[in-house]
Automatic annotation (TrEMBL):
Gene3D superfamilies: alpha/beta hydrolase. It comes from the Bacteria. It comes from Micromonospora pattaloongensis. This is BCE-2095-like N-terminal domain-containing protein. SUPFAM superfamilies: alpha/beta-Hydrolases (SSF53474).
């Protein structure tokens, strides 16, 4: 098990404790894990601070954040200001100063984009699939999740968001910044790759950004999209832009877990909005699947790419 796996397993366990009101146990678990997971020091401090704050210990919560900051940690402003769990901490002296100091670090870190990751198939490629990672993930995760595209004869490219909430947590909250990241990364791809038929894909927040990219029609000229568990709602769909995409012949595939309580209802409403504009993505609900990739996704992806993504009315 990698450190990342350990971190994710820990957060799953702590979230369960949080949901059951067992906040002191969660704090103890997080603090015990900090020496073993130094790369996630800022994330763990934020988690501990939330647990401390909701259990009536705001001074300890602020001290937890300040200690992590003093050893190099940081958080984007939105993580500290928009988190309701930290409401009692936000009233304390020193909190506003910490927010500004931390956000300055976050801004500096966001100016250091990582080049896109690229993998070619063994033979001549038939297309390029550009994958966008989900929240809390990175380009390496996307390369692993979408690796079957290479088997299907596609060049696989993973683009990483520059938007970081913490040193390790990336996502796509601002679509304009996401478009900037994608445009800059796409421009660095080899010219032969840029000329290939383009499929854009993503998971969760990355799927939302990929769908917006496909609808906009640039950079490149995406002909279809594949969205797994898209964190998208009807408010994210511009009817005029979607109608123009329909005229271009854009197709897509939306794969949702039937038990995905995180995004299912909003994503279904977004699909309805797309269909009302003339874009008719194929929709697949996977029984028993939550907010995750299905275990047979490699086979599903190869089949999608081999058959193309049909338009469903």
């Amino acid at each position: 098990m990698t450190d990342r796996d350990r971190y994710r397993a820990l957060t799953d366990e702590v979230v369960e404790l949080y949901l059951h009101g067992r906040h002191p146990e969660g704090v103890a678990l997080v603090r015990a894990a900090m020496p073993q997971l130094p790369a996630w020091r800022a994330d763990l401090a934020h988690l501990a601070a939330c647990l401390l704050a909701v259990s009536g210990r705001p001074d300890e919560a602020l001290a937890e954040l300040r200690t992590a900051f003093d050893v190099g940690g940081w958080w984007h402003r939105r993580i500290l200001v928009d988190d309701e769990d930290l409401a009692s901490v936000q009233e304390l002296d020193g909190f506003a100063e910490l927010v500004e100091e931390s956000h300055a670090r976050a801004v500096r870190a966001s100016t250091e984009p990582r080049p896109p990751v690229l993998r070619r198939p063994a033979g001549p490629p038939i297309g390029v699939l550009v994958a966008l990672h989900g929240a809390g993930q990175d380009a390496d995760d996307a390369m692993q999740q979408w690796q079957a595209a290479v088997d299907a004869g596609y060049v696989l490219v993973a683009i990483e968001s520059s938007q970081r909430h913490t040193p390790t947590y990336r996502s796509w909250p601002d679509p304009a910044v996401g478009t900037r990241d994608i445009t800059a990364a796409f421009a660095t791809l080899p010219s032969d790759v840029q000329r290939l038929p383009l499929v854009v894909a993503g998971f969760s927040a990355g799927a939302r950004q990929a769908m917006r990219w496909a609808l906009a029609g640039w950079p490149g000229e995406p002909g279809r999209f594949i969205a797994v568990g898209p964190a998208i709602g009807p408010d994210h769909v511009d009817h005029r832009i979607a109608a123009a995409a329909a005229q271009r012949g854009l197709t897509g595939h939306v794969l949702l877990g039937a038990t995905d309580d995180d995004v299912r209802e909003e994503a279904l409403a977004a699909v309805d909005e797309l269909r009302s504009a003339g874009v008719a993505p194929q929709l697949e609900l996977v029984p028993g699947l939550g907010h995750a990739f299905p275990i047979d996704f490699d086979d599903r992806l190869r089949s999608m790419l081999a058959a193309g993504v049909p338009t469903v009315a």
